[in-house]
Fold these 3 entries.
Entry 1:
Amino acid sequence: MKRMVKQNHELFVRYERNPILSVEDWPYDVNAVFNAAAGIVDGRTVLLVRTEDFRGISHLTAARSSDGITNWEIDERPTILPQPDTHPHTCPSQPLLSIPSKTAG
């Protein structure tokens, strides 16, 4: 029987100066900054970041950067707040999905 040898092929490489964004970067008071969904919109990196306020309630805030590492433009207030009827204390983290638009040809 032939043994399979697992090779270490990293899909992503961790940025050596992580975290890229932290509570100190936020334009308003937050208790914590968590992982974000990321995408490219109009050539810029856009993050939808889950943050937590000092009551422990999470919300989502958009952050944008031309290089995806520096010079972040963070929305001045939460972009998406919790929905009191369905998720009163948190905004569920959502992955981003890009669907190419069809153009008439």
Entry 2:
Amino acid sequence: MEFKVVKEEKNPFYERKDVLAEVIEAGATPPRKAVVELLAKKYGCAEDCIAIDHLRQDYGSKKITVSARVYSSAQACKAAEPEWKSKRGTKKAGVEAKAEKPAGKKA
């Protein structure tokens, strides 16, 4: 996976950097978790300091446009971002429970 930052803007009021990046992936669109890991490695911060706004990919294209925000701390991220955004890209608790449940017999 190839990663390149296209635009970076500092926003001192919210203690963050607004980042526009491009990811080139040969396969399918990468999961949000993989993109968060790339950004955390690039900026040297924890994964909970990053909020991904969107991942956009044109049909048939290998280039994915990423819009994200990199906060200086997890507290700043939690204060500025809505809770539902931090939950995006993670598995729900109910989904895992359904997958582990054995199939019942049909009568």
Entry 3:
Amino acid sequence: MSSPIIATAAAGAASHGAAAATGAAAPLLSVRNLSVEIPHRRGAVTALHDISFDVAKGEILGVVGESGAGKSLTGQSIIVSHGWCMQ
């Protein structure tokens, strides 16, 4: 059985300081400083480091990268951190 993945992030629609100051609408999704470490027998491996982005209402975010770049892991980490996954 593998060890759990450790994800740390300040994710959610909670970081609205700039939006409130300018009168702009708050983002539907705001991800700040998303980092993921995967435990390994020789120590933790950093899979994602310090990823931040916002997605506004009506906006579409496309994530592009090479195989193994962390696209799926980014999405999975956001889903888990929001409790949107079913156990």
